[in-house]
Design a protein that fits this description.
The chain is 20% helix and 32% strand. It is α/β, with parallel strands linked by helices and 248 residues long. The chain folds into 2 domains: 3-103, Translation factors (Elongation Factor Tu (Ef-tu), domain 3, Beta Barrel), CATH 2.40.30; 116-239, Rossmann fold. Strand 7, helix 2 and strand 8 form a beta-alpha-beta unit. The two termini are 25 Å apart.
Length: 248
C-alpha cells in the first residue's frame, strides 16, 4: 500500500492492551484508543512508539465492534527477536503508542443490496478482509460470504479458528490452500489460488470481490475473475505486505 495514496485524518495517544501470538510470525495487537476512531472496514492506521517512526497496519476488526469497545486489533508481523521492530520495540500491556489515521481507500461499505461477496486473501492480506467480513455478517440480512485464503504453511493462516467456526455454522464458505510443502497431516488444498478455486466460490457475475495480498496474487486473481465473468467494477484490490522486523 503506497503511503502517498493514504489520507491521514487524526492523530491520537493510545496504549497496548496485549499482544497475543496468532501465527509463528505474527501477533494480534489489541490497542485501547484514547478517543473515538471512526473508520471504514478495510482501512488502516499508522502506529508507533511515541518517539519512533510509525508504520501502517490494516485494522482487523469491524468499525462497529471497535466503536463499542473503543479498541482496534492489528495483525502485526514479528521478527526473530519476538518484536515488531524499532517502531514498536515493546508490546507489553500498558505500553503507550501513537495512532495516526484512519487511512486507505480499500474499503467495504455495508449495502443490503449486495447478495454475494467473495474475499480472497494471501498471507497477511486477511487482516482488512476480516474487518470487512465482520461488517458484512452484521448486515441484516447478511449477504452470502465466501473466503478463499492462501498461506505458505498451515500454521500461517491467521484467524483460522474463527473462520473455520463460521464455516461450520454455515455463515461463510471457507477454503484454504498452502503454497509451500505441508506436513502429510494437511488435508486441504495445495498450490497457489487457481481459477478452479475461484469458480467454486463465485456466485455469478454479481459477486462483489475483494482481493488483498502479495503482488502476484492481486495481479493474477483479478485476471482469473475476469475470465469467469466478473466485471472489473466488481473487483476491489489491495496489495499489502505486512511490516515485519528485520531478522536478528
Amino acid at each position: 500500500m503506497p503511503l502517498d495514496a493514504l489520507r491521514v485524518s487524526m492523530l491520537q495517544q493510545a496504549h497496548i492492551v496485549n499482544a497475543v501470538r496468532e501465527t509463528p510470525r505474527t501477533v494480534l495487537l489489541h490497542v485501547a484508543l484514547g478517543e473515538p476512531l471512526p473508520f471504514k472496514a478495510g482501512q488502516a492506521v499508522l502506529i508507533g512508539a511515541p518517539a519512533a517512526a510509525r508504520r501502517p497496519y490494516s485494522i482487523a476488526v469491524g468499525p462497529t465492534e471497535s466503536a463499542n469497545a473503543r479498541t482496534i486489533t492489528l495483525l502485526v508481523g514479528i521478527g526473530d527477536d519476538g518484536t515488531p521492530g524499532p517502531h514498536l520495540p515493546v508490546t507489553a500491556p500498558g505500553t503507550p503508542v501513537v495512532i495516526e489515521g484512519p487511512l486507505g481507500t480499500f474499503v467495504y461499505s455495508p449495502d443490503a443490496a449486495e447478495r454475494s461477496i467473495l474475499f480472497v486473501a494471501g498471507g497477511s492480506g486477511i487482516a482488512p478482509l476480516r474487518s470487512m467480513l465482520h461488517e458484512a455478517l452484521a448486515t441484516s440480512p447478511p449477504p452470502a460470504v465466501s473466503v478463499l485464503y492462501s498461506a505458505r504453511t498451515p500454521e500461517e493462516f491467521a484467524f483460522d479458528a474463527e473462520l473455520s467456526a463460521l464455516a461450520q455454522e454455515g455463515r461463510v464458505k471457507y477454503r484454504r490452500t498452502v503454497t509451500r510443502e505441508a506436513d502429510p497431516s494437511w488435508h486441504g488444498d495445495r498450490g497457489r489460488i487457481s481459477r478452479a478455486h475461484l469458480e467454486a466460490l463465485v456466485d455469478g457475475p454479481g459477486t462483489l470481490c475483494f482481493v488483498c495480498g502479495p503482488a502476484a496474487l492481486v495481479h493474477e486473481v483479478p485476471r482469473m475473475l475476469g475470465e469467469i465473468g466478473i466485471a472489473p467494477a466488481r473487483i476491489r484490490v489491495e496489495e499489502w505486505a505486512l511490516p515485519r522486523a528485520p531478522a536478528s
